[in-house]
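Long-time lurker. I teach an intro course on protein structure, and each term I like to show students one example going from raw sequence to a predicted 3D structure in token notation. This year I'd like something fresh instead of my usual example. Would anyone be willing to generate the tokens for the chain below so I can use it in lecture? Attribution to the forum is fine with me.
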Amino acid sequence: MSFSAEFRCASGCAGAYPLDQVIYRCPTCGGLLEVVHDLAALRARSPGAWKQLFAERWRSTEEPWGSGVWGKHEWVAPALNAEHIVTMFEGATPMTRAPRLAAALGLGEVRIKHCGTSHTGSFKDLGMTVLVSMVAQMVAAGRPIRAVACASTGDTSAALAAYAAAAGIRAVVILPRGKISTAQLVQPLAAGALVLAIDTDFDGCMRLVQELAEREGVYLANSMNSLRVEGQKTVAIELCQQLGWQVPDWVVIPGGNLGNVSALGAGFEMLLALGLVDRRPRICVAQAAHASPLYASYRAGWADLVPVKAQTTLASAIQIGNPVSVRKAIRTLQRFDGVVEQASEAELSDAAARADRTGLFNCPHTGVALAALEKLVARGEIAPEQRVVVVSTANGLKFTDFKTRYHEGELARAGADPTEPRYANRPTVLPNEYGAVRDNVRRLLDA
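-- Reply from a regular --
Happy to contribute to a lecture. Here you go:
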């Protein structure tokens, strides 16, 4: 079977462009592009046959099909030759039940989709494997691409640097100085990328990298490049596959630049269009209150988004005041009867810590999503019998400073969290005496 896909204007302007063309915006309206697949060709294979093929490839040892992204190759980038695919067996991440968390919230079923168990520790791997693989194919064809570049709040830079290093392609990373974790910073450095720390915020970095792409012939790797969305949409396909091709009632996902929101919607729409599922879930986008322009738009009846100067937030990866993918995100939320919620610094910190007490180890951005979930349940928008999936976007091990500062009470003292941590757990220092150890253990056992 022959399958194809092409870029088209997300706002509906005429024109179609091949996926290996260096183009990021519609030439007519200046809006973002999206990848459109030949659904008629894909329908030549039945829903049952697609499910069987995806099951056969799931976590296979055969490269690249064992990748959670490339196991859906025909739905992602069908014109990309397997020999050019750059994969770290990204995706195919666990989705675990959280029964103790569900019980604490009064829900029957909550599952966590652990995107942070991917190669570089975040869901950004899913989009970057597609983008870098396409660049590798373009370079092999003689296209004059000198480097790939991105602006980043941390996770995008780690993913780009790793995949570019694997492909032997030069990478340039532009970061806001002092605004990402040490673990996030060291990843692109270790991979050999040119790392530029700029005295600005993410939005300022984004302006710089776009100008760099226009003037210096580097290939733009941010989520305004719709190739990224094609990889990230596999989160929706995966989680339905892991639920036996059932659709959850709700999906809660943190949102900053908002490419992940439109990606999630694209995945569900494709499943619906090709008959593998029969309905859409509702989607909640969770934003940090210190960087919540989408929340303001939603509360104003989807008014035009007003960019804001994002304030410092513990959820640094979503500290974005002028999201590039806002129009596509709003379109997705309107189709999915979606909502937007926000979380304060105290709320996101306590929500992450509360969930950690049930065996999880959440990044602060997942804490934002969990805090939003608590609010939706509290006001009755999510009913007890509904199934909820929370998308955990990054690995908590990237944010050990956040965890340490929370449990030691430093967030409160620094003013990042004005309240005392509700779930703080500090070590008890004891002398080297059995009696002291025994007494503390007994207090635990008798509690």
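Some talking points for your students: The first helix runs from residue 39 to 42. The chain has a mean pLDDT of 94.
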